[in-house]
Amino acid sequence: MRITLDARQNTEYGLLRTVVDPRFNKRTGAENSGSQEREGNAAPTTGVNGNKQVHINTTAYIQLGGLTVGRLGSFFSNQFGFNDLVGSPGVDARDEVNTIAYTASLDNGITLTAAIEDSADSSRDGISSYTAGGTAGTVGYGNNRFPDAVLALKVDQAWGSLNLAAMTHAINYNTTALDTDFGYATQLGAKINLPMIGAGDYLTLNGVYSRGFNQAVFRNVTGDRGNNDNSFGSGYNGSFNARATLNDAVVNTTTNDTYLAKAYGGVGEFTHYFTPTIAGFFGGGYAKIDWDNAARLAVAVQPASTYNLYLGAIWSPVKGFSVVPEVEYTKVNVKTAQQNNATEAAAKSNDQWQARIRVTRAF
User: Fold this and answer.
1) Architecture of 66-361 per CATH?
2) How many CB atoms lie within 10 A of CB 241?
């Protein structure tokens, strides 16, 4: 459940807007990442079968003219959204972050936003460290020294919308022996209206590339990963247990050399309206994480790739009410074979079918 309070007032400095949007959630299953608990997206495991407590995640911000201050979705995030219920690879779905931003209108539907965001909310994918002999070390993310910086250009026209964004990310280690590394991510998204096919039809595309900032690409695929988590483990986009290094960086503690991950992905989706109340959609995405040869030689990093295909429908007989069924296929490929569970043989790839139905009522 979510309740949105949106107060607006015109002033001599522009529109003054205040938004508070709390969301109340109850989940089951094991989600033990500390960052998720910190943000209110998960509670420590309690009860039988890991049942969770009720928890709250809140958007809350103030806008005055072009200035935005508060907690809301990153300005780097894809701005157009997809109907996929699970979350396609290649799409950044970061939770809310503490931010301060300014958006300038350049006329003709063009806006430019500059923002700084709390890097604590994006230091999730961890750091792995090894000695020259391959023994695991203890280097991880340290305290925050630099915020993330975002620059985003958005274009809204009759044909659709375009969003180009770039973001920096500081990788601060928990040891004074290492200086801060800086990763980054870039993305290009587009929503193209297709009225020549059908009223309301559109195509949505998004591509992302990152270095030292895997969350920009893999956030939807794996859910939230814990610090120093080397396992491509169970995530929102599939239940698999395949060996891969999803960390933002790895460290050779013998030489103090650091290596940043490379990740890239994309997704596309087409939505067609058969009637004003019935629509269908299909799409797919791909994402890959890779490492430079130097990192592969120095430490035991494991590349991986994944893709998904999905098909669904939207039924909205009444305004504010929708029923969305979906079927999805997901596959992951990794360098090193590993068992999915105790009864299956080790394999370098794993796949899964999923079916879901979401019922939504807004009023």
Assistant:
1) Beta Barrel (2.40)
2) 15
